[in-house]
Amino acid sequence: MVQILNDIYDDLKQASVTNILMFLLFSILLTLIISSQNFFFQRIIENGISKKDIIAEKTITVIDTKRTEQHKKDVAMNIEPILIPAEDDFIKVNLDTLENSIVQIRHKKVEPSIKRAELGMLFDIAAQYKKDYFAA
Question: Domain limits at 45?
Fold first, then answer.
């Protein structure tokens, strides 16, 4: 009997056998740890609902997307536009276009009241008494 134990002890001294035994021990230990987590989890949860009250140690916050989008819209409505001076070319082109339109209206062979109405539309004048300032 002692001889058999000595033979087993000598076999266990070899590095390859020791490595294999350590690997098996580690695998069994890891398997037990992972399976115990699932076992304990299944005892707490029943049909997807926790049997116990779960109290968070920290406050959990989430973004309220609807209110955030509404707030963005409200803030965007209150922003004043940034105005820059118009460029000289833009002013010149618009002035030339306006001048050409006025000349075309003046050279039309229609009644002066129609010319006044067209000039009023051109200058975006709604009040009738202001349209009378234009000379046909």
Answer: 2-50
Percent of residues, the chain, with pLDDT higher than 70: 82
**34 occurs within a structural domain:** yes
DSSP codes of every residue in the chain: -HHHHHHHHHHHHSHHHHHHHHHHHHHHHHHHHHHHHHHHHHHHEETTEESS----SS------HHHHHHHHHHHHHTPPPPP-PPPHHHHHHHHHHHHHHHHHHHHS-S-HHHHHHHHHHHTT---HHHHTTS--
Q: Report yes or no on 59 lying in a domain.
A: no
| Structural domains of the chain, count | 2
pTM check: above 0.85: no
Extract the residue ranges of the chain whose pLDDT is less than 50.
136
User: Does residue 70 sit within a domain?
Assistant: no
